[in-house]
Amino acid sequence: MTIREQIEQMQAETLSEFATLDQNSKGRDVEEPQCDIRPVFQRDRDRILHSKAFRRLKNKTQVFLDPQGDHYRTRMSHTLEVSQNARTIAKALRMNEDLVEAIALGHDLGHTPFGHCGERVLNKMSPEGFIHAEQSVRVVEKLEQEGRGLNLTWEVRDGMRNHRTGGHPATPEGQIVRLADKIAYINSDVDDAIRGKIMSEESLPKEIRNTLGTSVKARLDRLIHDVIINSANSPEIHMSAEISQAMTVYTNPTAKGEEIKASRMIEELYRYYVENSNALPDRYRGMYMDEGEPLERVVCDYISGMTDSFACKKFNEIFIPISWEEY
Length: 327
Known about the structure:
Elements: H1 3-14, H2 40-49, H3 52-56, H4 75-93, H5 97-106, H6 115-125, H7 132-143, H8 154-161, H9 172-195, H10 206-212, H11 216-231, H12 241-249, H13 259-275, H14 282-289, H15 295-304, H16 308-319
């Protein structure tokens, strides 16, 4: 018996009856030999962790655009917080931690530069629309590994695609990540806004403070406990009505004073590449010219893969006149 088979046997004996077992996975689009050590969801987690798209998350906006400080969240630190929250919940409920971690690490791979601001612009500009959750799946199916993708399992891709508020993940592990994402961004928005002096703890609505707690730590503890308590011995992962209502009442603080500039930048980059497809890198131009992908989709692929700093760099190269020096 291989190490992988021993792990799969241990899962079957110890995990919840509602957990998604590696050995029951619906598999990959392209069948491949099993690893003798790692079950399929652990392999998916490792592939995501080593991808270029994952590494780029460290230079993408989470709350603040171009934050001037070392302690503000980035899209990567947010992703790691989602993963940690999700694993805590999964362990308490005896769900599959490897599946939860793979979905969490991959859920924002398709996010644009400048956070949801960039997403809104591409969704408005592109005739096909743009949703970062769908783009995350496109990254692992099409864009990574020079067009070969990562060949992830169906369960991981389903969790990534359905992690948004209106999504309906097919597995309990995907449902855990969906709630862990909301928990993470609510807490990070508030924490970063307080750090940036956009707001104070006391300025939070009284209803939020009374229900969720009066500190970032207290809110995180309350939210995670609520999910665990209300989802025990159930195939459905959910919060109590009281907590869900409090999270609905909460709205993100205005922490993005540069959003108008960032939006204009993404708009101009999109127009430029649609009108000048020859300026796209060879791989993206090949997707359009040789593979028949719609140009607007390819432009969205290219721009959404940019970090904040790279988007600024390309904008300057294209639209800002070169400074000439006299010798």
